[in-house]
Amino acid sequence: MIEAQQLTKRYGEKTAVDGLDFTVKPGTVTGFLGPNGAGKSTTMRMIVGLDAPTSGSVTVNGHRYARHQAPLQEVGALLEAKSIHPGRSAYHHLRALALTHGIPRRRVDEVVELAGLGSVAKKRAGAFSLGMGQRLGIAAALLGDPQTVMLDEPVNGLDPEGVLWIRNLLTSLADEGRTVFVSSHLMSEVALVADHLIIVGRGRLLADTTVRDLVREAGGDTVKVATQDPARLRDVLAGPGVEITGRIGTEELQVTGMSAREIGLKAAEHGIPLFELTTKAVSLEEAFMELTRDAVEYHGSTGTETSGSAA
Q1: Taking the CA of residue 149 as centre, how many other CA atoms within 13 Å lie in the half-sphere pointing to its CB?
Q2: Distance between CA atoms of 209 and 170, rounded to whole angstroms?
Q3: 45: left (phi > 0), else alpha (psi -120 to 50), else beta?
Q4: DSSP string of 212-249, one letter each residue
Q5: Residue 132: which of 143, 150, 120 has the closest Cα?
Q6: d(CA 271, CA 142)
Q7: How many CA atoms, within 13 angstroms, populate the side-chain half-sphere of residue 96?
Q8: Which pLDDT tens digit goes with each residue over 174-190?
Q9: What are 55's strand-pairing partners?
Q10: pLDDT, tens digit, 9 for 90 and up, residues 38-61
Q11: pTM here?
Q12: Of 140, 232, 290, 304, which is most buried, counting CB atoms within 10 Å of its CB?
């Protein structure tokens, strides 16, 4: 479990992380999302003691990272895949890490196999592609068989087979009861593996929620219904957890809390004809963009800009 309490980090006059409170629980994959410059990397660095908080605290399994006697066996982290000696082989890199933490040689062999590095384990890591470097970084993170796994952009550089591998790996780790904390810019991947989300913007917490709830709040569970008798349909559909909106004088209603199937069956049961029954589809990416609209530091231009050239 990872717990942050009023976690804050300032660099001079810039506040990179501003009073974050969140808990990453075991047994689930938690996605850590935010625009560029939101403070995600700084937060992850503080979790593993690479940066010291200006104020507040963050603990892993009840203790600060530096207080763990065998930190690699408490939390496995991938923050920078290429942070290895380029002249060292993948196997010897993992073996060196294992020796410094009292981890047996057989565990090195296990993570080499797990990460699909068997055919390149004796090759110099400096010659690895980005994707193979990612696999080595993930192997290193799993070396201590930790209960907490924290990965920053783990699918970066992976081919489709590698993306499927990391997707299944994250799910299996959570199913084993481990704490899994994953940062990514690929919303489609997060939507497939994450159950819970922690979203930050400009260093502040924007949402601590589930994927389903975030999408629903963005209108993802809204069903558009058109009928000649909206007042009667409203009365028929009314109930606990159901929200119905619509302008007076129109035939359209917006319904949340009921599926299109449930609405259609209810209307048929009461003999109310429907002209339209449409579910609004909202992706995690759309919900994320809506939530973080005002927290993006760098906006691209859709127009064409020109600049003068020196004579």
Answers
A1: 31
A2: 19
A3: alpha
A4: HHHHHHTTTT-EEEEES-HHHHHHHH--TT-EEE--TT
A5: 120
A6: 59
A7: 8
A8: 999 999 999 998 888 89
A9: 8
A10: 999 999 999 999 999 999 999 999
A11: 0.79
A12: 140
